[in-house]
């Protein structure tokens, strides 16, 4: 599959590496509010997903977030087909991208840092049938760098949770915030 970021003539030279440098960051541990928002976003999808694949960065916090999200999802009767980890930097992320997309889940969940997810996302667009519109992410990915370094269209439709119960989504070149309900 050729990326929307690459033309047919340059498909062989397409790189999943971020288009601009991205500062490394540490992910935050998801609390119950953020996990609840992730579940709400999943349940709002049509058709409603029954199975998910969870993707995560290789750090300890992303590992803990993935485990907590998996417990919450299966606790509500959902099925986790796989959990796939990837490094912050890689030559291509091809092996991880194939493992992430191969189970053909109803939806994907991502908990990672922008630096690693940008490369992984660019590889997914280029090499798999992954859909950002069927993907929900944690709050750590709600940053403009995702659009700038990922390229226009790479993450179009990706949605995610904020730690305060609000949500966000990427619409072409915009990161749109949806505030949570006042307490």
Explain this structure to me?
The protein has 183 residues and is of the alpha/beta class. Helix content is 31%, strand content 20%. The chain has 5 helices and 7 strands. Strands 2-1-3-4-5-6-7 form a 7-stranded mixed β-sheet, with helices on both faces. The protein is globular and about 40 Å long.
Describe, in short, the structure shown.
With about 180 residues, the protein is α/β, with parallel strands linked by helices.
List strands and helices in order, with pairings.
Blueprint: H1 32-43, E1 51-57, H2 60-75, E2 79-86, H3 94-101, E3 107-111, H4 114-127, E4 135-137, H5 145-150, E5 159-161, E6 167-171, E7 174-178
Parallel strand pairs: 1-2, 1-3, 3-4, 4-5
Antiparallel strand pairs: 5-6, 6-7
Helix pairs in contact: 1-2, 3-4
Features:
alpha/beta, single chain, 7 strands, 20% strand
Number of helices: 5
| Class based on secondary structure composition and strand pairing | alpha/beta
SSE succession: HEHEHEHEHEEE
Tell me how many strands there are. Answer: 7
Using only C-alpha atoms, the radius of gyration works out to 15 Å
Helix content: 25-40%
**N-to-C CA distance:** 45 Å
Amount of beta strand: 15-25%
Mean pLDDT: 88
Which residues sit in consecutive blocks of at least 5 with pLDDT less than 50?
Answer: 1-13
Strand order of the largest sheet: 2-1-3-4-5-6-7
